[in-house]
Design a protein that fits this description.
It contains eight helices and twelve strands. By secondary structure, the chain is an alpha/beta fold. It has two domains: about 140 residues, ATPase, nucleotide binding domain (Nucleotidyltransferase, domain 5, 2-Layer Sandwich); about 90 residues, Nucleotidyltransferase, domain 5 (2-Layer Sandwich). β1 and β2 form a beta hairpin. The longest helix is centred in the middle third of the chain and has 18 residues.
Length: about 230
């Protein structure tokens, strides 16, 4: 089972190709905002490193957000176009799941975050279970202060990760029972997506390309500005 996976929900583009859930080639680009120009060349480079062509791919895995609107559209649209051209299915996995998954071995509450701009973060909460993580909250958007208050009220030992936590670190440093995972857990990784998407493809938990939708938790900045002006 060979999959091509990528996530573009944050300023960092991540691409991986793998077989049976194990990455054969992976590329994580430095943070930037040129996803439309970077994603296809990154896919080509990963395939070159793996020594494969696109026609060997059984399915495509893509991070569905929440995250940056432009980046999400680039990733989801590219997944749809490739899947339709290759006549293969798509597996969409929320990008917060990808930030959380590498931390699955902790006994603490795992709280991945993604910078939502406008002084907010996207987040969710997870608990470790045999073989992985189980989400124990909805996917949410809130200010860092609101998230810090929620974690304080819960009182759980927690591990918070993602670029949203790093950007607003001061809000979480004051919580004695909350630890930041640090820069190595700042971004959704395509290698994590590969591990999560492969068993879903094997269970046929995929969708047709035209059924794939990004996970938006709020209106885009353009839509907010449009509404503010009453247009």
């Amino acid at each position: 089972m060979q999959l091509l996976c990528f996530d573009t929900a944050t300023p960092r583009v991540s691409v991986a190709f793998g077989r049976n859930g194990a990455a054969i080639a992976e590329l994580d680009l430095p943070p930037g905002r040129r996803h439309a120009e970077e994603l296809v060349p990154a896919i080509e480079e990963v395939c070159d490193r793996a020594g494969v062509s696109l026609d060997v791919i059984a399915a495509i895995g893509v991070g569905t957000g929440p995250g940056l609107f432009t980046g999400l559209r680039v990733g989801v649209t590219t997944a749809k176009v490739l899947a339709q051209a290759l006549r293969i299915p798509v597996v969409g996995v929320p990008s917060l799941d990808l930030v959380a998954y590498p931390l699955r071995h902790t006994t603490r509450l795992v709280v991945p975050t993604i910078d939502a701009r406008r002084g907010e973060v996207f987040y969710a909460m997870y608990r470790g279970v045999p073989g992985g993580l189980q989400r124990v909250s909805e996917y949410e958007v809130a200010t860092p202060e609101e998230l810090a208050s929620e974690l304080s009220a819960r009182g759980d030992e927690a591990l918070i990760a993602g670029d949203g936590a790093l950007l607003h670190q001061a809000e979480f440093d004051e919580l004695e029972h909350v630890e930041l995972a640090g820069p190595t857990a700042a971004w959704p990784r395509a290698a994590a997506l590969l591990e999560l998407a492969t068993p879903r493809v094997e269970r046929e938990e995929f969708c047709a390309p035209w059924e794939l939708d990004p996970l938006y938790l709020r209106a885009s900045d353009a839509e907010i500005e449009w509404d503010r002006r009453g247009l």
